[in-house]
Write a structure and sequence with these properties.
248 residues; alpha/beta; Rossmann fold; 7-stranded mixed beta sheet; globular; binds 5-O-phosphono-beta-D-ribofuranosylamine; phosphoribosylglycinamide formyltransferase activity; transferase
């Protein structure tokens, strides 16, 4: 059976947070409006690093994808008294502006705070501290409207569930394999919860690894190719949940 997508309805909206080279972002860009990610559009790429090459990938995509830069150090400098949690809410504000159906963390090298996730889930409004001017009629107690439909937040992580949480997971995993401490490695896309890299996996995939091979030349390219597949597949799975084909 061929499932037809109603193209008179607006495309699914994907927002992406990055910090670096953006090869996973590129995989999403390439997949948009192909059978792998039909009727979908990346509506924002936000980076916490100004020099992230992913911003260039987005700006030079066809059609160009809107980009934003919001760095933590300049934010804290420009908002005396603000905290890391305030920064996350400022990121949330940029994300909410583009009304995404899903938020993909594609190499976002920050741990997201609970407040950020609560905003995405619709459990709390944004803090008025950061937008005193914005107090609409349907605003929540704290000043801004809440999201009415949860925006799922998903993350790509270069390890299997529960294996190597946190930063440098690929390197730590590879070294552990070479020492004989683990016998398999892989990558996953998971739902983001406050506990780092512990949210429910959406897709996990083992990556071939061999004793004595080189991390940079052998394992890493193989690992990335697997990431580029599963980030697209997981984004599609989540979009299919929040915007079933018949509604697109
Ligand atoms: C990926 O390997 C991801 O697993 C890790 O950061 C890397 C980002 O790569 N968290 P890129 O910016 O998508 O090329």
């Amino acid at each position: 059976m061929v499932t037809k997508i109603a193209t008179d309805t607006p495309p699914s909206r994907i927002a992406v947070l990055i910090s670096g080279s953006g090869t996973n972002l590129q995989a999403l860009i390439n997949a948009c409006n192909t059978p792998r990610l039909p009727h979908a559009q990346i509506v924002l790429v936000l980076s916490n690093r100004k020099a992230a090459y992913g911003l260039t990938r987005a700006a030079t995509a066809n059609p160009p994808i809107p980009t934003a830069y919001l760095g933590l150090p300049p934010f804290l400098r420009d908002n005396p008294g603000a905290t890391r949690a305030d920064y996350d809410l400022a990121v949330a504000r940029e994300v909410l502006k583009v009304r995404p159906d899903v938020l993909v963390l594609a190499g976002w090298m920050h741990i997201v705070s609970e407040g950020f996730l609560e905003v995405m889930q619709g459990g709390r409004a944004l803090s008025p501290l950061l937008s005193p001017e914005n107090k609409g009629e349907d605003a929540g107690e704290q000043g801004e409207p809440r999201v009415t439909r949860e925006i799922p937040v998903i993350n790509i992580h270069p390890a299997l569930p529960g294996q190597f949480d946190g930063a440098n997971a690929m390197e730590r995993g590879f070294e552990a394999f070479q020492r004989g401490e683990v016998d398999r490695l892989g990558v996953m896309v998971h739902r983001v919860i406050a506990e780092v890299d512990r949210g429910a996996p959406i897709i996990m995939r083992e990556v071939e690894v061999h004793k004595g091979e080189d991390l940079k030349n052998d394992y890493e390219p193989r690992m990335h190719r697997t990431e580029w597949d599963i980030i697209v597949e997981a984004t599609k799975l989540v979009l299919d949940e929040v915007r079933p084909i018949s509604n697109r």
